[in-house]
Each structure stands twice: as structure tokens, then as C-alpha cells.
Specification:
Elements lengths: L4 E7 L6 H12 L3 E2 L5 E4 L2 H16 L3 E7 L4 H38 L5 H23 L6 H30 L17
Antiparallel strand pairs: 1-3, 1-4, 2-3
Helix pairs in contact: 3-4, 3-5, 4-5
Amino acid sequence: MEYKWILFCPQLPATPSSPRVMIWRRMHSAGSVGLDNGLWILPYSEKTAQFIQEMKGYVLNQGGTCKTFLTNAYDPETENEIQARFLRDRAEEYYELKEQCVDFLTEIEKETARQNFSFAEYEENEQDLEKLETWLVRVQARDFAGGEKAVEAEEWLAKCRTALQGFADEVLAHEDADSSGRPRLPDLPDLAKE
């Protein structure tokens, strides 16, 4: 029989709480869905089986116990509910990523309007884009289904890359136009006058 799911049920001592927090964080980072009373579920693969084996070792080293099972859903309703939970969790993450992309694009527009075409501003925005790209890779690693939300997140990140490239072109053009060889700083408000 071919199994579709891995169930993981760790039991840890009440104190300290840090091992339970560690389990919670690692299970979420792996894309697991928390069911009832500390029961976690992941789609079965060699990679997830290895991960669960590592988590089992951690629990045992912390003085806890755990049970692991390979299983299938009992009925189509349960299967659909579990798959819907995975899709909903990833949709929330992709939505958060999209919000951050919108903020990134707004920042580029604001700095362009201010004509703040300095290398420092470019570098700050480049670092923000790298964070978004890293975040997308992590979400995709725990996205077992893919779908339109994943595609939409890729499209938003492409808009961010394009906006940053346009901003970089402006920074370079303004540095080349500055006869002193130094980047031009924007006029900042005088806080002493306000």
C-alpha cells in the first residue's frame, strides 16, 4: 500500500517550553499543518520522512516521546480538508509576500519622486529585494501544491526586480551627470525648523 501522509505526534515535558516552541517553528517552516492536540501532518516524501526522523531525534533528546505514522485519509472529505489546509496556509504566506512587494514598489516610487538616486538608497532597496526573493524560495519549498498563488507571487517579484533595475539605471545616470563625481543627495527637511 502506498501512503500519502506522515503523521507526527511529539510529547514533550511541560517545562521548559523552548523545545515545544522549537518543534512548532520547525514544523511550520517545513510546511506542516498542525491538526489537533499537537498532531502534525506532512505529505509523504523521502525528504519529509528524513525531516520527521530528525524531529523525532530532537524530541527524544529533550526527554520526550513521539509517535510517527504513515497513513492515508480515511475518506475523501478528510483528504479534501487536509489539502485545503495546506492550500490556505500557503495562500496566506503568498498574500503576505505580495503585501511586502507592494510596499517595496511604493518605496521605489517614493524615492523616484524625491529623486533620491543615491547608491545608498539603491543598496538598501537591493537588500530588501533579496529578502523578498529568499522569502519566496522558503515559501515555495513548503508549497506542496503550487497553483495560481505561487504564480502570482512570482509575477509580483518580477515587478519588483524590474522596478529596482529601473531605479538602478536612474542612480547610474545621476551619478554620471554629477560633475563632482559624488552622488547627489536629496534635499532633506530641516527638523530644527519644524
